[in-house]
Amino acid sequence: MDTEAGLSKHLIRLRLIEPPRRDTPVIHARALGPLFHGFAEADYACGSCDAVLCAGITPGHLAGVVFRCWCGAFSMVPST
User: Which residue, 16, 45, 42, 19, is CA-closest to 32?
Assistant: First the structure.
């Protein structure tokens, strides 16, 4: 676990999914590095390559959101 400003962080590996339907909203990561930065206790990582897509997120926030990582994999944020 990393610590930043005294805050203990844990990594949540997102669920790897098949490519979604064309009408499903997807957030695309075009480069390595988090797309969202917050101040909470968890980081969301790609379900395939473990690249951090969201840093400092409260677990459960962004539930159901689909990300396409720069590696090409699709991952979904789980509901709590």
Answer: 45
Compute the distance between CA of residue 1 and CA of residue 9 in angstroms, rounded to an integer: 6
Each residue of 11-68: pLDDT tens digit? 999 999 999 999 999 999 988 889 999 999 999 999 999 999 999 999 989 999 999 9
pTM attached to this predicted model:
0.84
CA distance 64 to 25: 10
Domain residues of the chain, as ranges? Answer: 31-80
What Rg value do the Cα atoms of the chain yield, rounded?
A: 12
CB atoms within 10 A of CB 26: 13
Looking at residue 4, its amino acid is E
The pair phi, psi for residue 53, each rounded to 5°, is -95, -30
CB atoms within 10 A of CB 36: 15
